[in-house]
Design brief:
153 residues; mainly alpha; 2 domains; 88% helix; flat
Length: 153
């Protein structure tokens, strides 16, 4: 009987403290999963946004998706292609008209921050700023042949 009591005591002490550890590990695991999911989704949308910004909208892919989603007939597809091509041209024109202002503001911010930094900080700042600028404000894509062809149909 005394041997049974020896075995029960450590088990009872162990199980009393174990549930806190399990709760802590569960919360930690959930938080890590939440953070990883957030990072993955953010990276996905950043790369997708950058892809559209660099290459422009894939006109044919957009039309194909609308055709499947809305079950468009041939006439509707032709009219929608024309409308979307015109809309993309209008958006490109707007972007081109405001781009010089955006570039001027970005250059002002880069220069003003650089003037406050020592040479090492300035190199880091300018390298990172330029990288971010290229990623978020790439050159405006020219009209692609797929978009031009769709608007002339």
């Amino acid at each position: 009987m005394s041997q049974e009591n020896l075995h029960e005591t450590p088990l009872r002490l162990f199980s009393r403290h174990r549930w806190w550890r399990e709760v802590f590990l569960g919360i930690t695991l959930f938080a890590c999963g939440f953070l990883m999911g957030g990072v993955i989704v953010t990276k996905y949308y950043i790369s997708r946004t950058a892809s559209v910004a660099h290459a422009g909208v894939n006109h044919q892919q957009t039309i194909d998706r609308l055709q499947r989603m809305l079950d468009l007939n041939a006439e509707q597809t032709r009219q929608i292609q024309t409308i979307i091509a015109k809309g993309l041209d209008d958006l490109r024109s707007i972007r081109q008209s405001v781009r010089p202002e955006i570039d001027a503001v970005l250059e002002r911010v880069r220069t003003e921050v650089s003037s406050l930094l020592n040479p090492r900080q300035k190199r880091i700042w300018e390298r990172r700023f330029d990288l971010t600028r290229r990623r978020w404000f790439p050159p405006i894509p020219e009209n692609t042949s797929g978009e031009r062809g769709a608007s002339s149909r």
